[in-house]
């Protein structure tokens, strides 16, 4: 599941593959960009912004993409077989003489002026993996709606950018708080942005996301994806429930013993 660390790695891979060389192929397979040809332009850099990817090109253009739930970019060498999915899932192809970047299942793909990037990322809160990370501003935004359940507040990219469902669940477990606890009742709430950044920084350069400190495949996370299995701390069966406003619910995992406090009415 793409979260801020995944997007950071993707941006780094795309930047290494494309930046500095002219594009020899440009194939954007969405209706709004079907006639756009970027061939001949150089990619100047590829930047992550929260969960957004900004591919900047000479001439003041930016190709904006977002992975959401299952989008992906893959980079291939000349002659290498493309393995990211069937052809009908390809939304973008950008190639230099040495590398080809292929975007699969991209739910967001649009071309805009680089000067207008704020129109797609300007609403975001401080970027957990960005050079301008501001923990105090992130905390201020979290506390601005103090009655909101902390699990929902953490997923709101307007508060701090980069947290997804995995880190939301893991962060609440590590801090021993219920995801349904109002932000105003979180003890020492400054721990929220601090630990969030620590987790993403620790995982941004590795494909296997680890929050427990144990790299073994079945031991990497505390609660996410482990509903019904025993808590690694106390042995209590872990639970899962949908959380969020109607139509925007996301699954949450937690331990009712290690994370006492408010809980939803319907759980598994």
Automatic annotation (TrEMBL):
It catalyses: 2'-deoxyribonucleotide-(2'-deoxyribose 5'-phosphate)-2'-deoxyribonucleotide-DNA = a 3'-end 2'-deoxyribonucleotide-(2,3-dehydro-2,3-deoxyribose 5'-phosphate)-DNA + a 5'-end 5'-phospho-2'-deoxyribonucleoside-DNA + H(+). It is an enzyme of class 4 (lyase). Gene3D superfamilies: 1.10.8.50, MutM-like, N-terminal. The keyword NAD does not apply. Its EC number is 4.2.99.18. Residues 222-260 form the FPG-type domain. Keywords: DNA damage, DNA repair, DNA-binding, Glycosidase, Hydrolase, Lyase, Metal-binding, Multifunctional enzyme, Zinc, Zinc-finger. GO terms for biological process: base-excision repair. GO terms for molecular function: class I DNA-(apurinic or apyrimidinic site) endonuclease activity; damaged DNA binding; oxidized pyrimidine nucleobase lesion DNA N-glycosylase activity; zinc ion binding. InterPro entries: DNA_glyclase_Znf_dom_DNA_BS, FPG_cat, FPG_N, H2TH_FPG, Nei2_N, Ribosomal_uS13-like_H2TH, Znf_DNA_glyclase/AP_lyase. This is DNA-(apurinic or apyrimidinic site) lyase. It comes from Streptomyces telluris.
């Amino acid at each position: 599941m793409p979260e801020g660390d995944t997007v950071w790695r993707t941006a780094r891979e795309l930047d290494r593959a494309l930046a500095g060389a002219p594009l020899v192929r440009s194939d954007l397979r969405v209706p709004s960009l079907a006639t756009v040809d970027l061939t001949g332009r150089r990619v100047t850099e590829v930047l992550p912004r929260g969960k957004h990817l900004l591919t900047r090109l000479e001439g003041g253009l930016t190709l904006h993409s977002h992975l959401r739930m299952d989008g992906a970019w893959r980079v291939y060498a000349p002659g290498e077989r493309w393995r990211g999915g069937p052809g009908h899932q390809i939304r973008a192809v950008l190639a230099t003489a040495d590398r080809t970047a292929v975007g699969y299942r991209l739910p967001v793909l649009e071309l805009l002026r680089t000067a207008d990037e704020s129109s797609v990322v300007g609403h975001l809160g401080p970027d957990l993996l960005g050079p301008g990370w501001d923990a105090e501003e992130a905390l201020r935004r979290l506390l601005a709606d103090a009655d909101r359940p902390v699990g929902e507040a953490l997923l709101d990219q307007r508060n701090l950018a980069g947290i997804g469902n995995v880190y939301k669940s893991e962060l609440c477990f590590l801090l021993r708080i219920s995801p349904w606890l109002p932000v105003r009742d979180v003890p020492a709430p400054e721990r929220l942005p601090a630990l969030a950044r620590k987790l993403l920084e620790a995982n941004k350069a590795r494909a296997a996301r680890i929050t427990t400190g144990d790299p073994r495949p079945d031991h990497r996370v505390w609660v996410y994806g482990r509903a019904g299995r025993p808590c690694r701390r106390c042995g209590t069966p872990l639970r899962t429930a949908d959380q969020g406003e109607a139509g925007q619910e996301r699954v949450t995992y937690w331990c009712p013993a290690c994370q006492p406090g408010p809980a939803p009415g319907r759980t598994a």
